[in-house]
Amino acid sequence: MVLPPTAPMLLTRNLLYTGITRAKKLLVIVGSPKVVEYMINNVDSKHRNTGLEYKLKKLANK
């Protein structure tokens, strides 16, 4: 898992957790320890407007 220094809104605990839990046999984290620490401490969660709910309802009504 590559963790480059990037926009803080992308460096979230949720993203780190997802990367760790998706690993099947081995996980190698490539990045600065400061970035990993920032992600662990960054519990901010942004609401994502994906439109998924609307699309699923639209498919269900067909």
Summarize the structure.
With 62 residues, the chain is mainly alpha-helical. 45% of the residues lie in helices and 6% in strands.
Task: Describe this structure as you would to a colleague.
With 62 residues, the protein is mainly α. It has one domain (2-60). It contains three helices and two strands; from the N terminus they run βαβαα. The protein has helices spanning 13-22, 33-41, 52-60, and strands at residues 2-3, 30-31. Strands 1-2 form a two-stranded parallel sheet. Helix 1 (13-22) crosses helix 2. It is elongated and about 50 Å long. The protein starts with a strand and ends with a helix.
Give me the secondary-structure topology.
Elements: E1 2-3, H1 13-22, E2 30-31, H2 33-41, H3 52-60
Parallel strand pairs: 1-2
Keywords:
62 residues; mainly alpha; 3 helices; 45% helix; elongated
Strand content: 5-15%
**Which sheet architecture does the biggest sheet show?**
2 strands, parallel
Shape: elongated
In angstroms, what is the radius of gyration? 16 Å
Number of strands: 2
Give the SSE string: EHEHH
Oligomer type: single chain
Low-pLDDT regions:
none
Mean pLDDT: 88
Spatial strand sequence of the major β-sheet? 1-2
Number of domains: 1
Helix content: 40-55%
Query: How many helices?
Result: 3
